[in-house]
Amino acid sequence: MINVLLADDQRLVRAGFKSILDGEDDITVIAEAATGAEAVRSTHELKPDVVLMDIRMPELDGLAATRQIVQASAVKVIILTTFDLDDYVYGALRAGASGFLVKDTEPMELIHAVRVVARGDALLAPAVTRRLIAEFAGRVDKPAPSPRLNSLTEREREVMTLVAAGLSNDEIAAKLVLSPATAKTHVSRIMTKLHVRDRAQLVVLAYESAMITPGWLG
Question: pTM for this structure?
Answer without folding.
Answer: 0.70
